[in-house]
Amino acid sequence: MDEELKPMLSVREFDPDRDTERVEAVERICEVGPSGKLSLFTDMLRDPICRVRHSPAFLMLVAEIGEEVVGMIRGCIKTVTCGKRLSRNGKHNANNTKHVPVYTKVAYILGLRVSPNQRRMGIGLKLVHRMEAWFRDNGAEYSYMATENDNLASVKLFTDKCGYSKFRTPSILVNPVFAHRARVSPKVTIISLSPSDAEVLYRRRFATTEFFPRDIDSVLKNKLSLGTFLAVPGGSYSSETWPGPDLFLSDPPKSWALVSVWNSKEVFTLEVRGASRVKRTLAKTTRVVDRALPWLRVPSIPDLFRPFGFHFMYGLGGEGPDAAKMVKALCGFAHNLAMEKGCRVVATEVSPNEPLRSGIPHWKMLSCDEDLWCMKRLGEDYSDGSVGDWTKSQPGMSIFVDPREV
Asked: Could you read off the pLDDT of 277-293 as tens digits, one per residue?
């Protein structure tokens, strides 16, 4: 009799007017870090869909028992590069070939939460299945998710119960924003590109990179994108002599690199919790010394124990033997931009095989060597046989991390 009176679980679309406060309450009780360890907490600034709302298509679902919200999940869909194939310009011209991207529609799951006192009841599984149904209805061919390698509960749910496979292990590289400006090599000139010029460079040189978004123009023109910046050898080009992307690519300098910057500070803030009093005091001491003696350039630790914003570097790429040095200059430029905007860290995410990784300054204590991406094939009617099943493909040298899903 009691079982018959027990409220049934229902899953429905998120209603911001009705659900925001209840969703925030679930987020708070789910973000309880392990005892004695540092944990990262997210404040979505009263906008629970902030991390997906800039994607081409998105959905948030909530699980409800009676009037209580006991779980939620977010998802979005976009079209990205999943491989490349050779294309010939001309029927019989075997020498005039180039690689062109192969695109597919991919869905991304993030923000799966279930109230601690309601776990082991199949709520997470039901949320995932309902989200996948929406993905299929909207033509997604693959679904993937990202989690920490040591989040065993999440990994087990997706790989054991939902049919996902471990797919990629990119690295999250985080660098603190110091109280002093970073030094940018005088041998490097940095040029700010217009969104249209940046789009041409990305499509002409990096469109075959895995996960490259086909709507890169929408990303570059988004209000959160602070710009795309090109690094070239000093004396080659300047903002005044920039010839445009076509002429630049017809005769590029020996080495060059570019990166775009996304203002995540306007979307959500982060906060480090669980630090001991000793660690807090040490961090504060480095800041005090740095302010008092700036010429020493002490590597101070910004205050990460209160809510802080960050900038995300995306679309990082380059060519030539000194491309890593160009990337280092761009990272210094991005650091200074973040300092001006009041951010405390600059972050990026790259493939573990990324050849330009050596040019990206980062602190190991703030970074993650292996973020885990798991993927599942949703449909068997894949649109281009030249790639086959993407989930079984080998990782490439680089990966494009969409800032709309950070």
From this structure: 888 898 899 888 887 88
